[in-house]
Amino acid sequence: MATSSEHPLSGVWKPYYLQAMHYGPSSVKTHLLSHLPSDTSKAFIVTGSSLATKTSLISQIESLLGPDHHAGTFASIKQHAPVAQLDEATDAVLKDPAIDTLISVGGGSPIDSAKVISHRHNEKRSKYLHHITIPTTLSAAECTGGAGYTDNSGHKVGIFSPALVPQVIIYDCTFAKETPQKLWLSTGIRSLDHGVESMYHPNAPDSPTRQLCLSAIAQLFEYLPKSKKEPGNEDFITRLQLAAFNSLYSLGLNLGGGLGLSHSLGYALGSPYGIPHGTTSCLTLAGVVRLKAEKPEDAEQLAKVLPYIGRTRSGDNRKDAVAVGYAIDDLLKDLGLVTTLKEHKVGEDQVHKIAKLATRTEEGRLYDSIVSLVKSKL
């Protein structure tokens, strides 16, 4: 049952508990150590190989922690968090009872992996680990208590607990500057996906969730193109990091289960076919918005987006919601992010399998609509 209503205007907001969110240049250097739980804390870093071997970011963090606080680093997290690497990282953490803190550095996979490690630690030791995250993409994985990893059969496994939300988020633009541009921009579309789907989420309260999502959508439309033109501009990077935060964190415990249809379709495309989630949002969001325009209550929420992206409302909610979908298409073109499933080696023979995974059915109006949407992306 929905916990918010437009008519009459009523609702409830159930926030996560966040100790601190820092942003700005050199915020890691300035604030990291102050957020360790104690003077004797031992921290374990979770990251991917690119950040560890192609940049100095991880060595900077290790130096900050020093021998007193650095318990180890696991730098083999891969896209979609394969379970084999998770098992290895979890074993390393469990072997050292002094570890009380995880520091995740990177995009969604390292952040989700740290959540899963904390979950497993709680199962073994009846205690969640303190989690400090330093995001370097715009995926906003730091903004929920949910985490996903890929099992040995290639399927996504999800877990959720309010206790898995990171306690501290540090958005440092000097760290994010190291992110490849295509990854940076495509994960920005992932944040746009969060913000748009939160608008019509049945449990999203008008305040603060929808108001912050409208702000996030406006910032993403404005600053993603600017960031493409000036990838080293730290102010643009920081504004986008804050937009990513606003796109999802404010939904809090109101999230409940899944976020929306674009995300469900993205999960059906992601792990099974090795497509990054930023890219899945590029494939799914605009089409899903046009589908949602056919539902009056969803169209009412989507139409509110139009003036925030520089367009004028017509007064016809369905027409305006459809226009939002086409505006997303235009943004993808401007960013050079238009792609097809065939580019990712997904053929027509997979269409019905994808639709079944996304809708959990094999017939009906929604299933048929998703089949058509997937075919249009071949």
What do these coordinates show?
With 378 residues, this protein is an alpha/beta fold. The chain is built from 15 helices and 8 strands. It has a 6-stranded parallel β-sheet with strand order 1-8-5-4-2-3. The protein has a two-stranded antiparallel sheet with strand order 6-7. Helix 5 links the parallel strand 4 and strand 5. The radius of gyration is 20 Å and the shape is globular. It starts with 19 loop residues before the first strand and ends with a helix.
Mean pLDDT: 95
Listing every helix as H and every strand as E from the N terminus to the C terminus, the arrangement reads EHEHHEHEHEEEEHHHHHHHHHH
Rounded Rg: 20 Å
Question: Which percent range describes the beta-strand content?
Answer: 5-15%
Work out the number of β strands.
8
Number of helices: 15
What overall geometry do the principal axes of the alpha carbons give?
A: globular
Helix content percent band: 40-55%
Q: Structural class of the helix and strand makeup? A: alpha/beta
> Low-confidence parts, pLDDT < 50 over ≥5 residues?
none
Walk across the major sheet and give the strand order: 1-8-5-4-2-3
Instruction: Give a short account of the largest sheet.
Output: 6 strands, parallel
Distance between the termini: 36 Å
